[in-house]
Cyclic di-GMP phosphodiesterase response regulator RpfG
Amino acid sequence: MKKLNNLTNKILLDMYKIIILQSILLICIGICLYFNYNTILSFALILIFIIIGILYMKKLKTYLVLPFNDVVNGLYDKGFMDGISSDKKISKQNINNILERMHEFPHTLDDIIYLIGSLNKDISIQDELEYIFLKFNKYVPYSYIGVALVKDGGETLEGEYAIGDKSILETLNNGNGTQKRYKISSTSLGNVIKRGTPRIINDLEKYVERKESKPYNEAILSAGIRSSIALPMIVNSKAIGVIFFSSIYKNVYNNEHVKFLNIIAKSIAISFNKNMFVDNLMYSSILALAKLAEARDEDTGEHIERMKAYSKLIAKLLYNKSSYKAQLSLAFIDQIEKFSPMHDIGKVGVRDSILLKPGKLTEEEYEEMKKHTIFGGRVLRAAEENILKSGKSMFSMGIEIAEDHHEKWDGTGYPNGKSGQDIPLSARIVAVADVFDALTSKRSYKEPFSFEESFDFILKMSGKQFDPEIINIFEENRDKIYSMYSSFHTKNASH
């Protein structure tokens, strides 16, 4: 910075010297002409004046014009001059726009530097996306950001994270095209992933017209998205996923936007890769433990997959229509899908003679069985304590579900006799899903109940075992519950 200031001072001093010298020459020429001095002398002074003027213009070009051009061209290359004509015929308005954008550039740079710095800290991926969404939409027009990650050895692409306008998120979450995982070969993103090249679509309606109809395309259009940029997230020359920036307006994106957003995509790819590795390792380890608990009982082997689906469906229905809407979010729905399978993780601590007993448990055995909620809470709390050392929380909802999914609305449940809204909402939702699937499934001590019998039992337990508002929503959506029930039991019957 000191060298830059010295250079600036030198340029200004040279300019002042030239201006003073030219001023003196002008005065001399004026005196000569006024007093009719030697004409040759006057012409000589005029010639010197012209030469100094040429030297002055060269200095101006060297120290001002060329550096200005270099800066502007550099900003064009990096995408910071989007929306400003790069035509050689520069208008006054164009110059004003360029100067205004150059004034913004240090702030843009600050935002990028802060983002890169934050990526080295242990903040969540969702927090990173929220920062990007709030800070960079003044440089690039977008209403939605989504991230899809490459899975199954590069065969599939799974939507993992999203942030955007609430109406867009609600439509994408609740529409028919909300399947999260697709074969890469069945999507148009193959080139983005395999070649590592960004893609711009400035008119999604026209683009979709030329393609085979797909549920996710219909969902995107229903959400109001009309243009999009897809950029590969690359780590060690390999695409780990795709990040989307989408707008509700047509024809808003250009190559300058791509250049700018590439900086963002490259910056967050490494952080995503690191965070995903740690999170997936921890989550997979705990989930494996939960599946181990279920695998000990052949009758409950697929229970966690079914009750996970029921839990997510109930949460979505509550999100759309209930007084709990304010307590719910799309992140809550994703988390309940992720952590509901851990509800019975504590059963790893229950003896086989109790867990697999075909008949009714004795009072003593039942007391032992009830401890699985305490065991599950301990397992997840231990995992949470470890991950909290890195400055973030991961298993808080899992702990709620494991400890409280056997609590009852009227306070007669276990392990702590909680009642009403003292029971976490996540546990109240999972309680309904857990019991409904248990009723409709075969267990060591019973045959499966019919859909009608199971559904009616759930309704009768409203206000006793279950939250009345959750049961109201459950009853109002009987058709959706039955549709999910049928998909599971038809599939099982075919095996």
Notes: The chain has 19 helices and six strands. The longest strand covers residues 238-247. Residues 2-77 form one domain.
